[in-house]
From TrEMBL:
Protein's UniProt name: TetR/AcrR family transcriptional regulator
Gene3D superfamilies in UniProt: Homeodomain-like, Tetracycline Repressor, domain 2
Pfam families in the cross-refs: TetR_N
InterPro entries cross-referenced by the UniProt entry: Homeodomain-like_sf, HTH_TetR, Tet_transcr_reg_TetR-rel_C_sf
Organism (species): Streptomyces cellulosae
Domain named HTH tetR-type: residues: 10-70
Amino acid sequence: MSRVSQAQALENRRRAVAAASQLFRERGVNGISVADLMKSIGLTTGGFYKQFPSKEALIAEAAQAAFGDLDLLLASFDTDHGDHDTARGALIDYYLSTEHRDQPGPGCPTAGFAGDMAREPTAGEVRETYAAGVRDFASWMSTEATDGLPMVATLVGAILLARATAGTELSEKILESTHKALTAPPGLDPES
């Protein structure tokens, strides 16, 4: 049996974290076993325990990686759209799209990990990572009038409800009406 080089071990760890980050958002942390995760990247369960002390350690690292991906996405919106107000509007368009609704794996970790964070009373390090990611997302969404938390809460709530009702007319209505409410000019009734 050959030993894995240090470089290959680091690459295996990176692949495991990336796969876990996506699969946890897609299926939940209890919806994917260590064996299934490792199989998805072509490695053995024994290889997992050479890299991580526990599944909880992987969850913390996967959540951190997912929020790192979100940071990169937000930075790309700023770069692609020039000014931050336009970038924020484009992010709302993306966030409330059927594409984002239907693909939770590469989607926002704020929504992707929300249920797991709510169900775990002792989430510890993972919860701290999650809270920091939510704060950073809210900061990016902030305007002169608000700190961004209401907008993040609205976006996340809408995408969770749209995913929970996917395949029904209500799912589309949730996306459309939330988009209209968040992009309506100040003082205008979005329902009119």
